[in-house]
Amino acid sequence: MARWEPGTRDRLREAALELFASRGFEETTAAEIAAAAGVTERTFFRNFSDKREVLFASQDEYAARFLGGIAAAPAGASPLELMSAGLDAGSGFFTDELRPHSRKRQAVIDAHPALQERELLKGRRLASALGQALRERGIPEPAATLTAETGATVFHVAFQQWIAPGETRSIAEIARGLLGELGALHTS
Amino acid sequence: MARWEPGTRDRLREAALELFASRGFEETTAAEIAAAAGVTERTFFRNFSDKREVLFASQDEYAARFLGGIAAAPAGASPLELMSAGLDAGSGFFTDELRPHSRKRQAVIDAHPALQERELLKGRRLASALGQALRERGIPEPAATLTAETGATVFHVAFQQWIAPGETRSIAEIARGLLGELGALHTS
DNA sequence: GTCTATAGTGCGATAGAC
DNA sequence: GTCTATCGCACTATAGAC
Q1: Is the sign of the CA dihedral A81, A157, A184, A132 positive or negative?
Q2: B121 touches chain A (CB under 8 A)
Q3: Does the beta-carbon distance from A117 to B113 stay under 8 Å?
Q4: Which residue of A has its CA nearest to B117?
Q5: A92 CB near a chain B CB, below 8 Å?
Q6: Tens-place pLDDT, residues A103-149
Q7: B58-187 adopts what CATH topology?
């Protein structure tokens, strides 16, 4: 038997969500999460800088996809086209199987101010990273920042809708619809 | 001699800012702040729910003034007039003598993600409270939320400008200018 | 005011991957 | 052999319970 099973990080994330959802965030200790994943508390903190972060690693993965989509867009793309490319690329992260998981995760976050703080910070970091990516694609200010803020907002609203009860559309569909409505605001 | 000097809260806030600014947030313990203010660690945590909160008590006072200004505005005021009344009332908090203090405080916050998280949460709470205050004044949705979000943004931008190097205008003047520019966006 | 649980860090030893 | 992830343990500070 191997000294350590692969996928420690993912097991910790799964265990944490389950325990947070069933017992509450503050009532769950890092040691309990670690034990549920078959590792020690020390290993938990080697994988996640603090107890809140275990819920937000997925956000970082999503951001990386979003940024990758912008970087991979064809040369000469407009700011809005870059943002659409990013939204499309990022949306691949939110598969239909992930939806129940995301609903559970959001319920936990909504119940704990400490987690809301982290979520807000991640949101600002996403907007900031998008702005940087757009500037690196040659978009000047203030278009880069405006487009980045819009993109972050569209994602946020689309995600909230995606996890709403009864919603069946993909997050990409929802985001496209929102971008369309946003455009209509300026042409009507 | 009194058993305890008055103004414990304020002394703790002053001591905390000085220590955070000179040594850094993480390098300063709650016990050190308490000692500098002449009280025990226990008293620190009785006054502030956590170590970060000692820097944000002022934000709560400001919010209370802002909300009071909205509540005190004349009947029949428009959403924008209510917001202006709130901004005017709140601006009284930011006296010229407070400006160096605010600059120092913001530098500390900008240097520590843990403090940025708290700042973001306070910002969301302000916007949410403004929306509630407007609804209580009879403003329907979506005007209440839109106006509240605008008001929170104007305050945020005005505050950033107010602490900018060389800036001498009052925060009320800056906010009025921003509201004017915002209005011009819709009439040009 | 005192006592205690938990978060989070530092470091040496160790076991497996390569 | 090197590199990396884990363990195990000691330790401080936060924050809440009593």
Answers
A1: negative
A2: yes
A3: no
A4: A117
A5: no
A6: 999 999 999 999 999 999 999 999 999 999 999 999 999 999 999 99
A7: Tetracycline Repressor; domain 2 (1.10.357)
